[in-house]
Amino acid sequence: MYSKLLRLLFVGLSVQSGLGAVIGDAAAAPPATVIATQQPPVTRNPSYTVVAPSSTRPTTTSSTKPTSTSTTSTRPIQTPPASSIKTSSSIKTSSSSTKTTPTTQPTFTQSNPVLDGPRQTNVLADIKGFYGLPGQDDVIRNATLNATDIQGDILVGMRKKLELFYFFHINEPKSFKKKLHVNVVPRITNTLQLLNVLTQPVVCLNVAFTHTGLQTLGFGTNLADNVWFNGQEADAWNLGDPSTTNWVPEFTGRKIDGVFLIASDTMANVLAMKNWLETLFGTDITKIYELQGNIRPPPFEGHEMFGYLDGVGQPAVAGFNVSPVPGQQVINAGVILVGEPGDTLIGSRDAWAKDGSFLVFRQLKQLVP
User: Fold this and answer.
1) What three-state secondary structure class fits 337?
2) What share of the chain has pLDDT > 70, as a percent?
């Protein structure tokens, strides 16, 4: 199967900026967009990808620093589409009649004993040879970026041990917006939180939206990015795909509106967040696809399947990586973040997208001897 990319947009978290704009009167969740990158497929085996909006066209398989940790240092495990899972909503009472059992929506509560518990150990993987992260005080003193308004997966990458990508379609925009504002936004993990174990959540949560997702939520903007605006299928030729015949079915068309990124250090924690989200939104959303990955076990943690340490070529972002390692390239924040210095289209971006970024999601099947 040929490779496929989906691009989504992360936006800022504050009520004044991105999240507030998407939700309406309330803080809105980071938007995402679907587009294809201009990278040739690694193999001609089944593969598919998702991407999130950034201020510039990505030059690697991901448009933000963290993407490499979630696509090459994890081993994706495909879950079957919901349509392939047999369910039953009726119970036979005789050979000629059935009695339908009413389905009841689980009761939702904002509090959760797992999600609200204290974190005892670092949620981020300790990868030997990988560059270190700045401290909270370093970022605050630098005062160049508002790290509380940037989702954690953009600059930190969350360096996840376990991660679940939950792709969804929005059925009820009005109800979805309200729940996103009231319930989800307080749980969105920002960059500053991740820089200290004491402020890290038990489960990290980020969200991004495709262009169709933003349209569903009332936004028709193209963010000065036609590739994102037109969708991944329109740009399939950049992947060398003559058609979408071999694409994973869930990624064809434009039915994906967004993706939740859920990360933690145990699968029980990840599933607790997934269940919390599904109980919260109920029929307001439909799950299109999910993909779970994990960091490779010792001594291969942080290394991709061919044995190379993943992510060591990532640049340092000005205003965040305040102490780059020798030889590490330093780039302007606007190369990654919308609306920051270095964003070559800064004058054409919508104000609500400031400090958002284009996320590229890519899933590849690699044949490794």
Assistant:
1) coil
2) 70
What is the arithmetic mean of pLDDT over 251-274?
A: 94
Count of helices and strands (H, E) across the chain:
9, 12
**Ranges assigned E (strand) in 171-235:** 204-209
Task: Name the maximum alpha-carbon separation found in the chain.
Answer: 77
SS3 349: coil
pLDDT-above-90 percentage for the chain: 42
310: annotated active-site residue: yes
Instruction: Return d(Cα 157, Cα 132) in angstroms, integer.
Output: 12
Distance CA 210, CA 56 (A): 16
- Which position among 241, 265, 310, 350 bears the catalytic label? 310
Cβ atoms of 6 and 252 within 8 Å: the answer is no
CB of 156 closer than 8 Å to CB of 124: yes
With contact defined as beta carbons under 8 Å apart, do 336 and 328 qualify?
A: no
Question: What is the Cβ-side half-sphere exposure of residue 291, based on CA atoms within 13 angstroms?
Answer: 21
Highest mean pLDDT among 13-17, 19-23, 63-67, 141-145: 141-145
> pTM for the complete prediction?
0.76
